[in-house]
Amino acid sequence: MEENRLTALAGLFLRKARKEKNITGKQLAKLMGISQQQISRYENGITPLTLDLLHRFLLTLDQDGLTFMQKIFHEYHGSISNKPETLSSPPPLSQYIKHFIKDKSC
């Protein structure tokens, strides 16, 4: 599903950052205080990230938030630009970050 594309790209970025830091999912889970299974769900794009959790991941993995955003947006636009309906201008940032904000009204 297209709506989960950003979640999947975020997970791929985090997995790559973890591997570049040469730590296992189990080690990252211990550092973050969550289960290894949950780390796997985030990295595989199964569970969307909240902004707070994304911030914790980036700090733990020594990653810059701006670099993260640039890389996943570049990948996102690269994947949709191959479609017949190419966007003439990027959508607003709010469209992107809604995928990382947990709906608190539920």
From TrEMBL:
HTH cro/C1-type domain segment(s): 14-68
Annotated signal sequence range: none
Name this protein carries in UniProt: Helix-turn-helix transcriptional regulator
Cited InterPro entries: Cro/C1-type_HTH, Lambda_DNA-bd_dom_sf
PROSITE patterns per record: HTH_CROC1
Transmembrane segments: none
Pfam families named among the record's database cross-references: HTH_3 (PF01381)
Gene3D superfamilies from the UniProt entry: lambda repressor-like DNA-binding domains
